[in-house]
């Protein structure tokens, strides 16, 4: 499954649509402006909230939490003791850990579990400026979760660059 993410660089609240390979709007990333912490909702095309994404207010390292309803799904943070700057760890609620590595700010990175590719994020496939693709490789992966992971990783990397 391939999705196209068209980021709005100067949009208030950081709202942007994610389209499928046929150009149909599938998900809306709804950034919540005027908040103390970065907060997003991933909505389907009908406006139903699928996933909430929030930055933790109190943590030693910048951390984002992905939730569905009141249930926590995953925590995303920079990998400890990594020689690579662009290496993040996603800890699922069941203890499973996913690795995210690559050139995050260039939108060229992968999501892996135990060396197996789950999703690839890349600008190489697309020619439209400020657009990148999210290719969910495994059929059993939740596309909304993969997109939420990408949003978290990009948000954390950009925040670190600006600090």
UniProtKB/TrEMBL annotation:
SUPFAM superfamilies assigned to the protein according to its UniProt record, in alphabetical order: Tubby C-terminal domain-like (SSF54518)
Family label: Belongs to the LOR family.
Protein name: LURP-one-related family protein
Native species: Streptomyces odorifer
